[in-house]
Amino acid sequence: MKPLSLLLSVVALGLASTVSAGPAVIECWFVEDAGRGQLSKKPAALLLRQGPGSPPPRPDLEPELYLKVHAVLTVITHTPAPRIRLGQDALLDLSFAYVPPTSKAAISLAPGPPPFGLEWRRQHLGKGHLLLAATPGLSGQVPAAREGAVAFAAWDDDEPWGPWTGNGSFWLPAVQPFQEGTYLATVHLPYLQGQVAMELAVQKSPKVSLTPAPLVWAAPGEAPPELLCLVSHFYPSEGLEVEWELRGGPQGRFQKAEGQSWHSALSHHADGSVSLSAHLQLPPVTTEQHGARYACRVHHPSLPALGRRSEITLQVAGLSGPSLEDGVGLFLSAFLLLGLIKALGWAAAHLAASRDSTQKKTE
């Protein structure tokens, strides 16, 4: 049974090292004719490497089906899933290589790298847009680039017979939310075409502030003022979580804060980011809660796993002893009062002396 075809659907995305640094294996399928119009499919692997040598053993594959395949056109990106901060520039990496299939084929062509075409498209929410097209070395008009996009479309070398490597990286200034989506980079050579896809996501981490801050006061048996946690200027709106935490108090450990909590509606800003406020109405406090710390912790895809937090300290009226700040304030007040008394005494003495000299002159 002879192989009918070999399907190598190779997506060379995110290769962190070049082929020369070691082999890279891409799993694929070997398809052959099973007779009666049927196809059979077997697991296979595509080994990318440089230089001679036999392939490494793979017990799960059939050795008699080993084939040697030469890559003619390779298109690779090192940024398969870029995460770009809202308003910053995006640089999508793209490199490609062309190796003439035979030396005769290379000699039959003009010396130097062949002309090529480059296209960058975006697909999002069922819509597609051509952002940039370039045809270095070819005459003819191409559509103007959209959204300020720039591509570095050029061969890196000009060897007469190859192989050749090229750069087609894509630069997009001041990325906005509407520019999210799948970016398709296609390299066109005579009778050849290679394409890779990149998923660009726009993010902006939120700012978190908690009021009243840094202290909140309450009398025993009374509820403190409502806590307001402002989560501002973040993107996307999905994936945001707000948690209320209590550290200290009667149990003396970390725990979920009790009380009634709710969120406001989203507020939209001109740059595409959003804001909201989270509210917590605390129950009446006890004297054991003096010094407890309430925190608002925010989780968002743009933040680390622990999120971002802001906290305040609860002071129960009548239980606060003098603090260092109070001592410093009293010292400064006493110092100023002493200086004022001395100044008044000096002014009174000077005024009395002036009156005595005036009386002596009159006599």
Automatic annotation (TrEMBL):
<dbReference type="InterPro" id="IPR007110">
    <property type="entry name" value="Ig-like_dom"/>
</dbReference>
<feature type="domain" description="Ig-like">
    <location>
        <begin position="206"/>
        <end position="313"/>
    </location>
</feature>
<dbReference type="InterPro" id="IPR050380">
    <property type="entry name" value="Immune_Resp_Modulators"/>
</dbReference>
<feature type="transmembrane region" description="Helical">
    <location>
        <begin position="330"/>
        <end position="353"/>
    </location>
</feature>
<dbReference type="GO" id="GO:0030670">
    <property type="term" value="C:phagocytic vesicle membrane"/>
</dbReference>
<dbReference type="GO" id="GO:0005789">
    <property type="term" value="C:endoplasmic reticulum membrane"/>
</dbReference>
<dbReference type="GO" id="GO:0042605">
    <property type="term" value="F:peptide antigen binding"/>
</dbReference>
<comment type="function">
    <text>Involved in the association of MHC class I with transporter associated with antigen processing (TAP) and in the assembly of MHC class I with peptide (peptide loading).</text>
</comment>
<keyword id="KW-1133">Transmembrane helix</keyword>
<dbReference type="InterPro" id="IPR013783">
    <property type="entry name" value="Ig-like_fold"/>
</dbReference>
<keyword id="KW-0812">Transmembrane</keyword>
<dbReference type="InterPro" id="IPR003006">
    <property type="entry name" value="Ig/MHC_CS"/>
</dbReference>
<keyword id="KW-0325">Glycoprotein</keyword>
<protein>
    <recommendedName>
        <fullName>Tapasin</fullName>
    </recommendedName>
</protein>
<keyword id="KW-0393">Immunoglobulin domain</keyword>
<keyword id="KW-1015">Disulfide bond</keyword>
<dbReference type="Pfam" id="PF07654">
    <property type="entry name" value="C1-set"/>
</dbReference>
<dbReference type="GO" id="GO:0002474">
    <property type="term" value="P:antigen processing and presentation of peptide antigen via MHC class I"/>
</dbReference>
<keyword id="KW-0256">Endoplasmic reticulum</keyword>
<keyword id="KW-0472">Membrane</keyword>
<dbReference type="InterPro" id="IPR003597">
    <property type="entry name" value="Ig_C1-set"/>
</dbReference>
<keyword id="KW-0732">Signal</keyword>
<feature type="signal peptide">
    <location>
        <begin position="1"/>
        <end position="21"/>
    </location>
</feature>
<comment type="subunit">
    <text>Heterodimer with PDIA3; disulfide-linked. Obligatory mediator for the interaction between newly assembled MHC class I molecules, calreticulin, PDIA3 and TAP. Up to 4 MHC class I/tapasin complexes bind to 1 TAP. Interacts with HLA-G-B2M complex; this interaction is required for loading of high affinity peptides. On its own or as part of MHC class I peptide loading complex, interacts with ligand-free MR1 or MR1-B2M complex, providing for stable MR1 pools ready for metabolite antigen processing.</text>
</comment>
<dbReference type="InterPro" id="IPR036179">
    <property type="entry name" value="Ig-like_dom_sf"/>
</dbReference>
